[in-house]
UniProtKB/TrEMBL annotation:
Residues 184-311 form the Aspartate/ornithine carbamoyltransferase Asp/Orn-binding domain. PANTHER family: ORNITHINE CARBAMOYLTRANSFERASE, MITOCHONDRIAL, ORNITHINE TRANSCARBAMYLASE, MITOCHONDRIAL. Pfam families: OTCace (PF00185), OTCace_N (PF02729). Pathway: Amino-acid biosynthesis; L-arginine biosynthesis. GO terms for molecular function: amino acid binding; ornithine carbamoyltransferase activity. InterPro entries: ArgF'-like (IPR043696), Asp/Orn_carbamoyltranf_P-bd (IPR006132), Asp/Orn_carbamoylTrfase (IPR006130), Asp/Orn_carbamoylTrfase_sf (IPR036901), Asp_carbamoyltransf_Asp/Orn-bd (IPR006131). Catalyzes the transfer of the carbamoyl group from carbamoyl phosphate to the delta-amino group of N(2)-succinyl-L-ornithine to produce N(2)-succinyl-L-citrulline. Is essential for arginine biosynthesis. It comes from Petrimonas mucosa. Residues 2-160 form the Aspartate/ornithine carbamoyltransferase carbamoyl-P binding domain. GO terms for biological process: citrulline biosynthetic process; L-arginine biosynthetic process via ornithine. The gene is argF'. Belongs to the aspartate/ornithine carbamoyltransferase superfamily. SOTCase family. Keywords: Amino-acid biosynthesis, Arginine biosynthesis, Transferase. This is N-succinylornithine carbamoyltransferase.
């Protein structure tokens, strides 16, 4: 694997899970792979888990790690080609990317959807510029349309906690005060569709995701019906995808908050969320603090997913 941006890049999903299991059980076994190799993590947006877990993954593999927050200390970057640069952006991304590439062996990029232009977001312009111009392997640390390291960690977590071979997994929309990208739900759907799980997506009308990600999932507009007999509840907010409402909040209906009454409809389901989570908007205190909440082990598995991906890229570089 040279680049990692989506589920297809990881190859066979069963084999990827076996590799992740080995990494989790033997976190320091592959330090020779990263010796004298530099990992560069570029953040266009804020992060807690991705920043720390990916650094830890790199260090576990013996790598040197450089982290750059583009909006804190770097020159403001122009991203459009052909612009007369007489404004407040002194550097063009088309110089900045190959320069960054010259200082490292692998680059991770976080660049969210901006909700100004759907085509720009869904073409993954920033991530693809890094792939095109850095000259180095690039992996996504959440881009405009996907968050594959999160989804891989989610899948690892479900495999660890599932009590039956083919669990029912429900992705539920939940309210949030800000317009959030579709990257996490898109990506989660894509990874769930790579398994043989029973996979259901529930959301209010108007929040339909791009069919290229939802694929064979069942879409159920009645949240309570969707929760029935679920083994895993994965909560997430997202803004509207469909035109003409792309990037908009259509409602903030608190009746969609995940609470104990709804969890009681499930098969004693585990509660999951990628974090950060808005308590008592997305999920009540009672549910996230309950024994069925696995958000912390889910976040801990972010090291495992990142390390498994980095190891595969390092193997390619040997
Ligand atoms: N889940 C996740 O990606 O968390 P951060 O935004 O804190 O990295």
């Amino acid at each position: 694997m040279r680049h990692f941006t989506c589920v297809q890049d990881i190859g066979d999903i069963r084999s990827a899970l076996e590799k992740a299991k080995y990494v989790k059980e033997n976190p320091y076994a592959d330090q020779h792979l990263g010796k004298n190799k530099t990992l560069m993590l570029i953040f266009f947006n804020s992060s807690l888990r991705t920043r720390l877990s990916t650094q830890k993954a790199g260090m576990n593999l013996g790598m040197n790690v450089i982290v750059l927050d583009i909006n804190q200390g770097a020159w403001k970057l122009e991203t459009e080609r052909g612009v007369v640069m007489d404004g407040d952006k002194p550097e063009h991304i088309l110089e900045a990317i190959p320069v960054m590439g010259s200082y490292c062996d692998i680059i991770g990029v976080r660049s969210f959807a901006q909700f100004e232009n759907k085509e720009y977001d869904y073409n993954e312009v920033i991530l693809n510029q890094f792939i095109q111009y850095s000259g180095k392997p690039v992996f996504s640390m959440e881009a405009a349309t996907r968050h594959p390291l999160q989804s891989f960690a989610d899948l690892i977590t479900i495999e660890e906690y599932k009590k039956k071979e083919r669990p029912k997994v429900v992705l539920t929309w939940a309210p949030h005060p800000r317009a959030l990208p579709q990257a996490v739900p898109n990506s989660f759907a894509e990874w769930m569709n790579a398994t043989d799980y029973e996979f259901v997506i529930t959301h209010p009308e108007g929040y339909e995701l791009d069919a290229q990600f939802t694929g064979k999932a069942t879409v159920e507009y009645d949240q309570k019906k969707a929760f029935k007999d679920a083994d895993f509840i994965y909560a997430k907010n997202w803004a509207a995808y469909q035109d003409p409402n792309y990037g908009k909040i259509l409602n903030s209906d608190r009746s969609w908050t995940v609470d104990t009454q709804k969890m009681a409809l499930t098969n004693n389901a585990y509660f999951m969320h990628c974090l950060p989570v808005r308590r008592n908007m997305i999920v009540t205190d009672e549910v996230i603090e309950s024994p069925q909440s696995i958000v912390i082990p889910e976040a801990a598995n972010r090291v495992v997913s990142a390390q498994t991906v980095l190891k595969e890229i390092l193997l390619e570089l040997q």
